[in-house]
Amino acid sequence: MMRKHPDVIEKGKTIDLSDLESDFLVMAQKRWYNFFYVILAVMLPIGPPMAFGESLSNSIFVCFFFRYIFQLNLTWLVNSAAHLYGTKPYHK
């Protein structure tokens, strides 16, 4: 959330990324990211409710709202499970 220091920007320009730029899958993912995002994260979740007669606004609300809530709960579950079942070396 902060601007990069000018030294960091200069050093970042010197990093050799030729191995990544020569990889077909990496560059295809970079090139087609927005297209696949729209298809997989927007159209695919909205499609099934609309196919069963739901309106566009309801489909958008249900898919995005519940996906967001589900995503947050899974994130918190992982954190809680890690604290509950993980090893705690700081306790004797």
A few lines on this structure:
The protein is an all-alpha fold and 92 residues long. It has helices at residues 6-13, 18-21, 24-51, 56-85.
Count of helices? 4
Helix content: over 70%
Oligomer: single chain
Detail the poorly predicted runs: none
Q: Distance between the terminal alpha carbons, to the nearest Å?
A: 38 Å
Strand content: under 5%
Estimated radius of gyration: 21 Å
Based on CA inertia axes, which overall geometry fits? flat
Indicate the mean pLDDT. 88
H and E string: HHHH
Which structural class best describes the helix and strand composition?
A: mainly alpha
E-strand count: 0
Report on the biggest sheet.
Answer: none
Keywords: Fatty acid biosynthesis, Fatty acid metabolism, Lipid biosynthesis, Lipid metabolism, Membrane, Oxidoreductase, Transmembrane, Transmembrane helix
InterPro entries: Acyl-CoA_DS (IPR015876)
Main location: membrane
Family: Belongs to the fatty acid desaturase type 1 family.
Q: What does this 3D model show about the protein?
A:
The chain crosses the membrane at residues 32-52, 58-78. With 92 residues, this protein is an all-alpha fold. It has a domain at 24-85. It contains four helices and no strands. The protein has helices at residues 6-13, 18-21, 24-51, 56-85. Helix 3 (24-51) packs across helix 4 (56-85). The radius of gyration is 21 Å and the shape is flat. The mean pLDDT is 88.
Task: Give a topology summary.
Elements: H1 6-13, H2 18-21, H3 24-51, H4 56-85
Helix pairs in contact: 3-4
